[in-house]
Amino acid sequence: MPSYQPVIGLEVHAELETRSKMFCRCAVVDSTNAAPNSSVCEICCGLPGTLPVINRRAVEFALRVALALECDIAQTSQFARKNYFYPDLPKGFQISQYEMPLATGGSLQIETEAGAKPIGVRRVHLEEDTGKLFHLTDHSLIDFNRAGVPLLEIVSQPDMYSVEEVHAYATGLRDLLRYLEVNSGDMDKGVIRFEANVSLRPAGDEALGTRVEIKNLNSFRAMARALAYEIDRQTALLASGEPVRLETLGWDEAAGATVSQRGKEEAEDYRYFPEPDLPPLVVPPDWTDQIRAALPELPAAKRARFVDQYALTPYTAGVLTADRETADYFEAAAAAAVSAAPVKLANWLTGDLFALLNETGRRLPTTDFPPGHLAELVDLVEAGTINQTVAKEVLATSYQTGRAPAQLVSKGGLEQQSDPEKLGRLIDQVLRQNPEQVALYAQGKTTLSHWFFGQVMQAAQGKADPRVVRRLLDEALRALPSDVNGA
Prior knowledge:
This protein is of the alpha+beta class and 487 residues long. The protein has 3 domains: 4-291, no CATH class; 297-412, no CATH class; 420-485, Arc Repressor Mutant, subunit A (Orthogonal Bundle), CATH 1.10.10. It has helices at 56-68, 163-179, 220-239, 267-270, 285-293, 299-310, 314-320, 324-336, 342-360, 371-382, 388-401, 405-412, 420-433, 435-442, 448-459, 466-478, 482-485; strands spanning 4-15, 72-73, 76-77, 79-83, 93-97, 103-104, 107-112, 115-128, 132-135, 140-143, 150-156, 192-202, 212-217, 247-252, 257-263, 273-274, 281-282. α13 (420-433) crosses α15.
């Protein structure tokens, strides 16, 4: 079978987290739980005699993204009417940008097992979202709450050649949008959606093959499965000598297959023309400069700094910087720590604390466990005041109650026992109480030392310093009487 290379470009549609819609004063509401059609007006429903007005905040958010992607900003851009009729589009056309978009060019750096690679950005433009359809057994319902919500479309160049690269680009772009605080990245609520353009060409060729577009992929899993299926489908077609049709596809999650929806539209099918009710959008250079100066440290830069400044592995740095609130929490904890190394803080944060967050369905800013509590807890462990076992219990209690770890340790008498004399007595007690195990150890079953260790820790109610226990236990076992050792 001939070898083919997939060529993939991605269109990302991200709802902007403004308070009002793109061209009217209607509030942006959570379409997953708001009462249907409770935030609509004559403008977003496109009734005759209404006039849209551009949302300045939406433009600012779009500029944040374009500047973070290092795009070229158009000082003058133009909204256009994109004419097509779907039941979820009340006006019968969508206000979008086409010939004169807000920004062009730019790139996003991705990291895969093959190394770093820039993915080109073709254009960034503003438009309005459509309504939402609910398909029932014999009819459909429409909720127009989402109609008119500011939507940012980011179109990549066809620079991705594997599912891994597409996943890295999509996750990297979502992280960027969250850092810029323009989109929550919550794919379950449909606030960010992907459309993939896929074609295949013989390996080594430069010309692009016939592409298909896979619409409305609303999870990374669905995107990966759809791309893998479509690559296999097109490979089989080409290998058998059949052509790939230019068409728009949907993804059927239950069937695990792409399904044809319609022939692929081209620009002329939409009959674009300048929106007559909106003037050109002019972005003064000084406004662009202000927005650029206010950009936060971006995920890629933060990852690199975490590796250099805190001696973290690239993987751990990536986990911590995946969202801004986690990165900020970690840095605040590192600043508050007295003796705890950043690596130790990172391990507790991404391990036990993340587990508690997942169990309770909460985010770091909503908990009563501030960064200073994490720093205090790990400081207690590093100072030898408490051991790992006790620390896990203290973490759970502090997380639930909001009480400081040091206070819990002091009032609960949880300090670690490290007095050699006291621990030596416990070890002698355990050995005296278990003569059969001592005899087996003397006969060569040295793995029983782990059992003895567990018995001593249990006798100490988990509060003994395990390093001291291990050292004293090894000494006690070596010093067993010769008759016990069988010598």
